[in-house]
Design brief:
- With 166 residues, this protein is an alpha+beta fold.
- It folds into two domains: 99 residues, no CATH class; 57 residues, Roll (Membrane-bound Lytic Murein Transglycosylase D, Chain A), CATH 3.10.350.10.
- Helices cover 23% and strands 22% of the residues.
- It has four helices and six strands.
- A four-stranded mixed sheet has the order 1-4-3-2, with helices on one face. A two-stranded antiparallel ribbon has the order 5-6.
- A hairpin with a 3-residue loop joins strand 2 and strand 3.
- Helix 3 packs across helix 4.
- The longest helix has 12 residues.
- The radius of gyration is 15 Å and the shape is globular.
- The relative contact order is 0.20.
Length: 166
């Protein structure tokens, strides 16, 4: 479990420009076809808590970034559990919230990626050069952030990206 902070005003707006709701956040994740079983989102107008089962750490991180990079979301609390075979059906469904786990007793996830907050003037090549020493590694950054990124040219200051280990 973890608490992740985002730039509340920097994110992409949901369809129609409406403020996020738990239902619209679930629909956003469904539209991205992220592999999350038993998805449940708790939303208080500032903090999003994600519950559900994911097949791996990468899918967990994508879910966190998918909601955290939306306009109006200030924080994301990760209560997603990694379970082999999760997401096999490819559908996300709202379910009753599981029992809240004591964060001090939950094992930390092992990530093969780092998070990076985009600054003004950044592009994927510049980020790849800074982190990997080679601007031509930008496709790895783009691939690690699909389906949230539709184009390597469409990033914005304040957006948080996954940077995979190469």
């Amino acid at each position: 479990m973890g608490l992740f902070s985002f730039v509340k005003a920097a994110g992409e707006a949901l369809a129609g420009g409406k403020p996020p709701s738990a239902e619209s956040l679930v629909e956003h994740i469904k539209a991205l076809n992220l592999k999350i079983d038993k998805l449940f989102i708790s939303w208080d107008g500032k903090t999003c808590i994600l519950f559900g089962n994911v097949p791996d750490q990468a899918e967990k991180e994508k879910a966190i970034l998918a909601v955290g990079n939306l306009s109006g979301v200030d924080q994301v609390v990760d209560k997603l559990k990694i379970e082999a075979g999760a997401g096999a059906g490819g559908t996300s469904t709202a379910a009753a919230a599981p029992e809240v786990v004591d964060p001090s007793k939950e094992p930390a996830g092992q990530s093969d990626a780092a998070f990076y907050t985009v600054k003004s003037g950044d592009n994927l090549s510049k980020i790849a050069k800074e982190h990997y020493g080679d601007a031509n590694k930008y496709p790895a950054v783009f691939e690690a952030n699909k389906p949230m990124l539709k184009s390597p040219d469409k990033i914005y200051p304040g957006q948080v990206l996954r940077l995979p280990k190469l």
